[in-house]
Design goal:
CATH class of the largest domain: Alpha Beta
CATH architecture of the largest domain: 2-Layer Sandwich
Number of helices: 11
Strand content: 15-25%
CATH superfamily of the largest domain: ATPase, nucleotide binding domain
Number of domains: 2
Order of helices and strands: EEEHHEHEHEEEHHHHEHEHHE
CATH topology of the largest domain: Nucleotidyltransferase, domain 5
Mean pLDDT: 94
Shape: globular
Bound molecules: 5'-O-[(R)-(carboxyoxy)(hydroxy)phosphoryl]adenosine, zinc ion
Length: 354
């Protein structure tokens, strides 16, 4: 029999389920944001030969992996299913078939265990990844998500209600890394491969464009940069292509990576100027695993005496702990969802007017 007090946040246990893209993940997190377990089954090898995530293959793989992953997450936390207080699930945004698998499993568990079901926005969950197993941060903070599907800046008065300040108008930053990786004949996912190659290159070899969408705007655009890299790698249409030797490939990777960092840095500086009240910076998403990106974020935060919460590498990429972490915060705020919770392919973020 459980001896846990419902008033003690360390006693509150939330199971988080993540199936939005190509990782099947589950984790148990307590009411203080302490990670009791985190299990991730990646599908990268299944999608590698296609150079990108194939939705049908992803859904099928989630169906195969999810229940064993859930079982391992609960076992590794040293608890029983009956000890769980809530089931959190990333129900948007993402691949709809993939989201259906996680959402359906979450509903079944919540129903069987007679505990609350909590739908969590995957992108908002990336923002709390840096608060797991970490000291609290002062709010309002700024939030930055740099992932395969998103490049977004938020004002975060509270992690459960971030306000969107800017986002990409075309490609996400991680998507640009993946596409540049394909141009340079690197594997998938491309971000870590581009980073490895960039380490041997000259970031000043190519002067790639950093899109500026207006002096006060906090939106991003990476498609012009991607096209510039394509022409530098493969040549302008109708012209003789350049020789893409090791040196050129490394210089392209380094110059591209540097241009993406300049784009993020510029918008981050603008956001800090527009919101002098912020004291913290929450960062998440796969691209925040990049060491050059992390270095820039550390430098920018230190210069402004901003408290940076940069997740460890395992919580930068998709994981269940961030879902459980945000779920625990919604639960503490008295929020939960009905069993009619529906997955959605897109995010529904509050956009600041004006
Ligand atoms: O957050 P995530 O796991 O999934 C989404 O929600 O999209 O991010 C995956 C993205 C991919 O585009 C991947 O290439 C990129 O993050 N990524 C990186 C690095 N590690 C992963 N990009 C640059 N450098 C890295 N080290
Ligand atoms: Zn993600």
């Amino acid at each position: 029999m459980s001896t846990r007090s419902p008033d003690d946040p360390t006693a509150v246990l939330v199971l988080g389920i993540e199936t939005s893209c190509d990782e099947t993940a589950a984790a148990v997190v307590d009411g203080h944001g302490r990670v009791r377990s985190s299990v991730v089954a990646t599908q990268h090898e299944l999608h590698a030969e296609y150079g990108g995530v194939v939705p049908e293959i992803a859904s099928r793989a989630h169906l195969e992996h999810l229940l064993p992953v859930l079982r391992r997450a609960v076992d590794q936390a040293g608890v029983a299913m009956s000890d769980l207080d809530a089931i959190a699930v990333g129900h948007r945004p993402g691949l709809i078939g993939a989201l259906l698998v996680g959402t359906s499993a979450a509903k079944g568990l919540a129903l069987a265990l007679e505990i609350p079901l909590i739908g969590v926005d995957h992108v908002h969950a990336h923002l709390v990844a840096g608060l797991l197993d970490a000291p609290p941060v002062a709010f309002p903070s700024l939030g930055l998500v740099v992932s395969g599907g998103h490049s977004s800046l938020y004002l975060v008065p509270d992690p459960i209600s971030p306000i969107l300040l800017g986002r990409t108008i075309d490609d996400a930053i991680g998507e640009a890394f993946d596409k540049v990786a394909a141009m340079l004949d690197l594997g998938h996912p491309g971000g870590p491969e581009v980073e490895r190659l960039a380490a041997n290159g000259d970031a000043d070899a190519f002067d790639f464009p950093v899109a500026n969408l207006g002096k006060d705007r906090l939106d991003f655009s990476f498609s012009g940069l991607k096209t510039a890299v394509l022409y530098a790698a493969k040549g302008q249409p109708g012209r003789t292509p350049p020789i893409l030797d090791e040196r050129r490939r490394a210089d392209l990777a380094a110059s591209f990576q540097s241009a993406t960092i300049k784009a993020v840095r510029r918008n981050l500086r603008r956001a800090f100027e527009q919101h002098p009240e912020v004291r913290g910076l929450l960062v998440g998403g796969g691209v925040s695993a990049n060491q050059a990106v992390r270095h820039m974020l550390e430098t920018e935060s230190a210069a402004r005496k901003i408290e940076l919460r940069l997740p460890p590498l395992e919580f930068c990429v998709d994981n269940g702990a961030m879902i459980a972490g945000l779920g625990a915060r919604r639960l503490a705020a008295g929020e939960s969802d009905g069993l009619d919770l529906a997955p959605a392919a897109t995010s529904r973020s509050a956009v600041q007017p004006g």
